[in-house]
Amino acid sequence: MDTSVPVQPARWSGGARARRLAGSPALRLAGRRLLAAIPVLWGVTLLAFLTLNALPGDAASALLGINATPAELKAFRIKLHLNEPLWVRYGHWLGGVLHGDLGTSLASPQSVASIIRQGLPVTLELVIYALIITLVVSVPLAVLCARRPRGIIDRLSMVLSMAGISIAPFVLGLLLLFVFADDLPVFPAIYSAPSSIVSNLYQFTLPSIVLALPLIGFYTRFLRADLLEQMQSEDYVVTARAKGVSEWRILTRHALRNSFIGLLTIIGLNLATLIGATVIIEQIFSMPGIGHELLQSISNRNVTVVEGIVLVFGIAVVLANLLTDLLYGALDPRIRHGRSRS
């Protein structure tokens, strides 16, 4: 008698995995966020297009200069399709985007996609490096301040944090550039093509510090306040103390992890501000990022390049906030996206 158990085909297990994946709360959350991002990105690009076209002058007058004759300006406007109605030009650009084409720069025959590909790695490295510096400094400093509130470290941190938050990025950038690249030539004043990884990090250090200093002050004060609230009002802290757990262990192993959820929210909300600050920092340090290119394109009324960069910035912010939502579940297993609310 054959007592062997028939083996189910492999496709059934694969189908079950696919159904579980399709029904996962994280995937449903990502789908909802991405669908909601479509009208947001459309509104951002439309607002940028209308704002840029409302400014005095156009790409023809900006690119040809003040010495151009009316006939030359007219011919150039026809060549760039600037004589067409506003809604027609935006419709052509939006149609190209839906087909994966960001268009061509009005100032050169170079495509907008190639311009973004050249400058995006510089801007991404600047943002990531600044975030790493921010977290490496602010998290330990906030823990020290929460462990000894109103101590010397806490008071000094408050003064420095208020100074970092109050100073505008362009003022801070020029000040640090004057001190550490002119008086004390520790860092280069102008960006140049790096020859190695060490040289690359060396050139990005000062611009990243300029971006990170205001965030360090803000994150330190926020995390310090949240840690103090956790240590003073949460039941799990009382239970841990009753079990004889040391204050340092409660602070670093329990309260800090819970406070990371609030810090993660702040990081996601501040990312748009951080990306906007790269426009100023890249201009100060002559860095060939897309922030620098955005400023030049606004000056030249180069609408297609501005629209492409604004779209990329918008997508970056949307994806960062989506990643923030997904990380909530990793930090706190009690959070389950997609469950019905009680």
Description:
76% of the residues lie in helices and 0% in strands. The chain has 342 residues and is mainly α. Helix 6 (112-147) packs antiparallel against helix 11 and helix 10 (235-242) packs across helix 11 (247-284). The termini are far apart.
Strand proportion: under 5%
The tally of helices reads 13
Order of helices and strands: HHHHHHHHHHHHH
Distance between the termini: 55 Å
Query: Uncertain spans, ≥5 residues at pLDDT below 50?
Result: 338-342
Largest sheet: none
Tell me the radius of gyration: 26 Å
Indicate the CATH class of the domain at 119-331: Mainly Alpha
Output the structural class.
mainly alpha
| Large-scale geometry | globular
User: Helical proportion?
Assistant: over 70%
Number of strands: 0
- Under CATH, the topology of the domain at 119-331 is which? MetI-like fold
> What is the residue-averaged pLDDT?
83
CATH architecture of the domain at 119-331: Orthogonal Bundle
Say which CATH homologous superfamily of the domain at 119-331 is assigned: MetI-like
Can you give keywords for this protein?
MetI-like fold, 76% helix, globular, disordered C terminus
Care to give the gist of this entry?
This protein has 342 residues and is mainly α.
